[in-house]
């Protein structure tokens, strides 16, 4: 008898659990038809108490240090770190699903700069009060990336820009005094260098050309460096222009002329790093985080001490970098908005940014921190990076960023693989983007 | 004994109905209620985890969110009922092109990988079925590819297939496996077959192990060679197991997602499958068309499963076995009844 009762209890418990799971699942899949409460009412930033900070993993532990410091000073307004998966797609999906069901557990969100418009337009994040964030001391591009339609919706947290890595030893050997500032200079330099006996078997340049978000970055940089834009200030696509064509042609011709290694079409950051590190490339566009492994002196890098960095090349002068990085935003569904705002201010303050510098290699958003001699001694690329960031542009600021970057990748990839000619690819891209930004 | 009853089963197959009511009548009234009660949690769970999500997906696929921006730049979303428009869109324009491409890829991968892994799996099973030293070691090591999570094996093969990777080194070639094109299709097929042939191999091995050794001894005495034994004994006797294994693999291959996603990357048209397409659509927050893709995939899988079971007679649910047993007991019952009547 007892045996049977237990079986029934197990069955009931299982059924109940599955019911809950199924309801939760369907809740996540549903579409929120109304896009949240009115922004004015929500933007009053009231309520104090514990909150949750939702973010990607921070391997350096620097973010945790800041949170510990906050928690020690605010025992009644403790912050809990909720860690999201490593993949940016999955992070975005979880954040969106929680916003769609208006879950109040996600208070402060760590957003990639390209999600800003989408989250702001859907009212999944709150506009921040004027003067809450010291934007005048921050690098303008990072503030621009956290702004949606003239209102600041995120507090810039860290940033990232392109660096141009080059082989100083080979430049010297070929008798070239200064690193190239334009694509033409780069081409001329390559011709000289590749003729040297010590450059046998090398290629000239690579960026990241696999069909991936990185291709959007490289395409946007090429277009901006040629004086064009992908979308204009009103958010309308502008890729069927002569400038955009000149930009894309730089990449297309790079493959055609053999300036880029033919397998660069499969390169992401890592493959490019390996090729450069093994001494197969003269020039490379990549992110700052590679600097440490390229200068490793343990024998893993064949180019340690032989390379240098500068800004990426453009058409007439230095090129325009695209901006990476993250900002912190506040969910309108959290009850403790006052605490959330205070925490965001604390977390993104210059003081905390400076403390994090000792632990994390992520670049701060305060320009003043790039020139501290102690910091520069540890991270010699910081002054160059600051130049790059001062000249940087955000990626297309559109609400449907996911579909936009897909369309850009699709067409740019077709052009550089030779499946479409530049004009057709750009016209098709313009048509697709027009449809998406309607 | 049993062999004599088998032929007489033939003409009776057309009339199973009269037997059923009598059987039901034999049951005590409490028995049916008990059965229903015992089954109800299962049915409830199935309804919750299968029927409800399915109906919800079908429902969702009839709607479309028309997003636009208002004057302040905020999203004004109107979700309107569009009937079957999401389905009609699967065959026209840009989304139609992507759908048909994904459909063709899914079918191509299913046919090629399942064929190759069946052949390879059979060979593995034949090799493992022979008695030799270290057989258990071989069996365990063959299981390794199947035990590796698909996403991890995707990464592993990505490393092998990168432009300066092992594959190109061995072949002395410069094939760009992970770029768009036929090479990427081949890369997916190779990785998928490597991963799943052991599954078929082990299932078929289990089928082979239950073939009694006397059958082979008798065949040997009759002078049958290895090929003859394979064709006349092994293959026919493992056929039921093999069919179930192939069906499982086909249903799995039709849902293929993580291997091409990790190995080649999302958004690469030459390897985009229906699951990847549905994922991509839902990632763009277009739940209506994503549901339509998912429902189409569900229907495709269902049709393939039904056709496979009907045409090739794979005994997945054990229904045939059940029928045979019930038939046997029925015949026994009629016999005893007849015997009683004559007495």
UniProtKB/TrEMBL annotation, chain A:
GO terms for molecular function: maltose binding. Keywords: Signal, Transport. PROSITE patterns: PROKAR_LIPOPROTEIN. The keyword Transport applies. InterPro entries: SBP. It holds the Pfam family SBP_bac_1. GO terms for biological process: maltodextrin transmembrane transport; maltose transport. SUPFAM superfamilies: Periplasmic binding protein-like II. The keyword Transport applies. One of its GO terms (cellular component) is ATP-binding cassette (ABC) transporter complex, substrate-binding subunit-containing. Residues 1-24 form the signal peptide. It comes from the Bacteria. Belongs to the bacterial solute-binding protein 1 family. This is ABC transporter substrate-binding protein. It comes from Pseudarthrobacter sulfonivorans. The lineage of its organism: Bacteria, Bacillati, Actinomycetota, Actinomycetes, Micrococcales.
């Amino acid at each position: 008898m007892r045996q049977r009762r237990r079986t029934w209890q197990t069955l009931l418990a299982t059924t109940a659990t599955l019911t809950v799971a199924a309801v939760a699942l369907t809740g996540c899949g549903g579409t929120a038809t109304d896009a949240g409460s009115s922004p004015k009412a929500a933007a009053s930033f009231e309520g104090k108490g514990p909150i949750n900070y939702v973010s990607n993993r921070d391997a350096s532990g620097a973010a945790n240090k800041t949170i510990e410091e906050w928690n020690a000073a605010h025992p009644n307004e403790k912050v809990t770190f909720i860690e999201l998966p490593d993949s940016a797609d999955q992070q975005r999906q979880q954040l969106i699903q929680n916003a769609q069901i208006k879950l109040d557990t996600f208070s402060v969100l760590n957003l990639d700069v390209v999600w800003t418009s989408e989250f702001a337009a859907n009212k999944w994040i709150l506009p921040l009060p004027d003067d809450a964030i010291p934007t005048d001391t921050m690098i303008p591009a990072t503030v621009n990336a956290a702004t949606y339609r003239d209102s600041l919706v995120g507090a810039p947290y860290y940033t990232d820009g392109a660096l141009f890595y080059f082989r100083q030893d080979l430049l010297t050997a070929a008798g070239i005094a200064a690193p190239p500032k334009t694509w033409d200079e780069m081409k001329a330099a390559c011709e000289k260098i590749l003729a040297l006996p010590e450059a046998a078997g090398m290629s000239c340049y690579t960026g990241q050309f696999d069909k991936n978000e990185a291709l959007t970055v490289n395409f946007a940089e090429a277009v901006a460096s040629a004086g064009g834009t992908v979308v204009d200030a009103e958010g309308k696509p502008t890729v069927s222009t002569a400038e955009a064509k000149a930009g894309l042609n730089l990449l297309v011709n790079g493959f055609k002329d053999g300036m880029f290694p033919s397998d660069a079409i499969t390169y992401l950051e890592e493959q490019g790093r390996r090729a450069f590190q093994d001494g197969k490339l003269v020039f490379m566009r990549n992110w700052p985080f590679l600097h440490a492994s390229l200068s490793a002196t343990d024998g893993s890098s064949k180019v340690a001490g032989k390379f240098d960095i500068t800004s990426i090349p453009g058409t007439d002068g230095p090129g325009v970098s695209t901006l990476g990085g993250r900002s912190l935003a506040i969910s309108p569904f959290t009850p403790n908005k006052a605490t959330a705002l205070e925490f965001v201010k604390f977390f993104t303050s210059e003081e905390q940014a400076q403390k994090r510098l000792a632990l994390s290699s992520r670049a701060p958003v305060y320009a003043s921190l790039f020139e501290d001699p102690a910091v520069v001694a540890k991270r010699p690329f910081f002054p160059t990076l600051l130049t790059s960031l001062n000249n940087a542009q955000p990626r297309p600021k559109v609400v449907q960023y996911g579909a936009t970057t897909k369309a850009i990748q699709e067409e740019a990839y077709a052009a550089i693989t030779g499946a479409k000619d530049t004009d057709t690819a750009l016209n098709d891209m313009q048509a697709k983007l027009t449809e998406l930004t309607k | 004994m049993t062999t004599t009853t088998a032929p007489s089963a033939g003409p009776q197959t057309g009339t199973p109905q009269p037997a059923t009511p009598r059987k039901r009548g034999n049951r005590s009234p409490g028995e049916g209620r008990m059965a229903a009660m015992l089954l109800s949690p299962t049915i409830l769970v199935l309804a919750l985890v299968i029927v409800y999500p399915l109906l919800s997906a079908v429902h969702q696929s009839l709607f479309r969110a028309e997003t636009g921006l208002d004057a302040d730049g905020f999203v004004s979303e109107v979700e309107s009922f569009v009937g079957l428009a999401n389905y009609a869109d699967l065959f026209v324009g840009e989304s139609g092109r992507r759908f048909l491409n994904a459909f063709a890829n899914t079918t191509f991968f299913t046919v090629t990988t399942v064929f190759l892994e069946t052949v390879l799996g059979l060979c593995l099973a034949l090799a493992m079925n022979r008695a030799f030293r270290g057989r258990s070691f071989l069996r365990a090591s063959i299981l390794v590819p199947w035990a590796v999570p698909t996403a991890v094996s995707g990464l592993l093969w990505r490393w092998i297939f990168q432009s300066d990777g092992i594959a190109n080194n061995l072949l002395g070639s410069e094939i760009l496996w992970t770029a768009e094109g036929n090479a990427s299709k081949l890369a997916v097929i190779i990785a998928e077959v490597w991963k799943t042939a052991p599954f078929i191999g082990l299932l078929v091995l289990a089928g082979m192990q239950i073939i009694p050794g006397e059958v082979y001894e008798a065949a040997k005495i009759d002078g049958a060679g290895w090929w003859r034994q394979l064709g006349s004994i092994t293959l026919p006797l493992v056929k039921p197991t093999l069919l179930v294994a192939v069906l499982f693999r086909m249903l799995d291959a039709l849902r293929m997602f993580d291997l091409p996603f990790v190995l080649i990357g999302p958004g690469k048209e030459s390897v985009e499958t229906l699951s990847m397409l549905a994922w991509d659509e839902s990632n763009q927050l277009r739940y209506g068309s994503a549901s339509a893709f998912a429902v189409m995939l569900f229907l495709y899988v269902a049709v393939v499963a039904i056709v496979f079971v009907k045409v090739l007679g794979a005994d997945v649910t054990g229904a045939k076995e059940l029928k045979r047993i019930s038939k046997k007991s029925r015949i026994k019952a009629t016999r005893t009844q007849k015997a009683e009547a004559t007495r």
